Amino acid sequence: MIWNLGSINIDNFYEVSHLPAAGETLAAHSYGFGLGGKGANMSVAAARAAARVSHIGAIGADGRWTRERLMEYGVDTPHIAQVEGPTGHANILIDRRGENSIVLFQGANSQLTEAIIGAALTEASPKDFLLMQNETNGQEYAAATARSLGLRVAYAAAPFDAGALTRLAGRIDLLILNEVEAAQLEVGAGPALGMLGVQDMIVTLGEKGCKWISDKGEKHFEAYPAEAVDTTGAGDTFTGYLVAGLDRGMPMDVAVDLALKAGAMMVERRGTADVIPDLKEIQDRFGL
User: Fold this and answer.
1) According to the 3-state scheme, what is the secondary structure of the chain?
2) Between residues 196 and 252, which one has the greater pLDDT?
């Protein structure tokens, strides 16, 4: 089972001709909203990959519908707390090439307590996964608690913060980064990188695929062809499918391949959590 300490956002989408420069006012061609946040995206992806996932998070009164939407997508929600203040949200600009620019507001995602996190993890079993991103508070407590209970810890280090990652040293089994974040890690952590105690690291490379780095060396995986219309949420979809595959007992290379297939399908869709492909769609598309 996967326990996901993750953000829940209300995503606002604006389609624009190009991403604006500093000081530029730009009219959007269209507007929409939906369920988002790296945490929610990964929970939905993991559930759609046939894993059981329980989300640990917080929302405001304005976000009660997000909890209901997660339930509809097969995510367990007893550990999503309602707190004072607004639900987190993201304003997402998407240009004609499918590239995006995102402004985040943490809102309720920064109000998680140790009591909320601890109550969830006391229900976990050894060898379960704790999945985290850097869009909530409580990561150090959650990682320490998970390790003490025998859980495996997967960390998608985004938005990247070298200090936050360093504070989790020795408590991460699987680290997922994109190419830019991997470069930031080398600059931010430097010689301390080898002291992080990470057994496996995955670096996603967009249309160039990804690479898996472990004590056995480095292996590159090619991306699957896709006509990208929106890259928003593709990395989260990859991560959710990757951890779900590992949780279901797949070898790393098999889980990575499945995650790449899911990511390729995701970039061909507009939206975030609401359009993440399910396992049946991937099986049909790739003849699995």
Assistant:
1) CEEEECCCEEEEEEECCCCCCCCCCCCCCEEEEEEECHHHHHHHHHHHCCCCEEEEEEECHHHHHHHHHHHHCCCECCCEEECCCCCEEEEEEECCCCCEEEEEECHHHHCCCHHHHHHHHCCCCCCCEEEEECCCCCHHHHHHHHHHCCCEEEEECCCCCHHHHHHCCCCCCEEEEEHHHHHHHHHHHHHHHHHCCCCEEEEECHHHCEEEEECCEEEEECCCCCCCCCCCCHHHHHHHHHHHHHHCCCCHHHHHHHHHHHHHHHCCCCCCHHHCCCHHHHHHHHCC
2) 252
